[in-house]
Amino acid sequence: MRLSPETSLLIVIDVQEKLFATMYEQKKVKDNIVRMVEGAKILNVPIIWTEQYPKGLGPTIPELRATLGDHTCHEKITFSCAGDDQILKAVEKASPKDILLCGIEAHVCVYQTAADFIERGKRVHLVSDAVMSRHKSNHEIALRKMEQIGVNITSVEMVLFEFQRVARGETFKPIAALIK
């Protein structure tokens, strides 16, 4: 059940300007999401990036949008990423054993995405320090509920070093630098 970059997919959910502005612990979580995306890019982990109704909630925050670079943004109106046919096709194309989730809000879009992919037989991993909600209590409830339904709770540092496995190779120094 150990994570591998070759069999994983990172989904970055709805880190948009108007929604993000209402979140608690913004800087810490923003930095962790950016770190997770940068690490995934270094390790060649496929990335899917979503925006919930961007006309109303605005675009992805600039720091993250710059980090995501040429990855395709998938617009959605469903709360769950698995409720959107285009996103499902992108997930199927990546064919992951493991799906890692980060983004906002933990108790709505992230939770519903996790639940739907668990029901579809995927191993789902929540990058807990790279998700947030407007209220800390909703974030905490979401983590507990996801763990109850079989989601693996992890962290940015844990994921990146689990992917890396050894303290050598061309990706080790860039990954270690992200964590410092």
CATH class: Alpha Beta
Strand % is: 15-25%
The figure for the number of domains is 1
Q: What would the average pLDDT be, to the nearest integer? A: 96
Distance between the termini: 27 Å
CATH topology tier name: Rossmann fold
What's the CATH architecture?
3-Layer(aba) Sandwich
Count of individual beta strands: 6
Q: What is the helix fraction of residues, given as a range?
A: 40-55%
Number of helices: 9
List the topology elements.
Blueprint: E1 8-13, H1 17-20, H2 26-42, E2 47-52, H3 54-57, H4 62-68, E3 73-76, H5 85-94, E4 98-104, H6 106-119, E5 123-132, H7 136-148, E6 152-154, H8 156-164, H9 172-179
Parallel strand pairs: 1-2, 1-4, 2-3, 4-5, 5-6
Helix pairs in contact: 2-4, 2-8, 2-9, 6-7, 8-9
Structural description of this entry:
Strands 3-2-1-4-5-6 form a 6-stranded parallel beta sheet. It has a single domain (5-179), classed as Rossmann fold (3-Layer(aba) Sandwich). α2 (26-42) packs antiparallel against α9 (172-179). 42% of the residues are buried. It has 180 residues and is α/β, with parallel strands linked by helices. It has 9 helices and 6 strands; from the N terminus they run βααβααβαβαβαβαα. The longest helix has 17 residues, at 26-42.
State the gist of this model.
The chain has one domain: Isochorismatase-like (Rossmann fold). 48% of the residues lie in helices and 20% in strands.
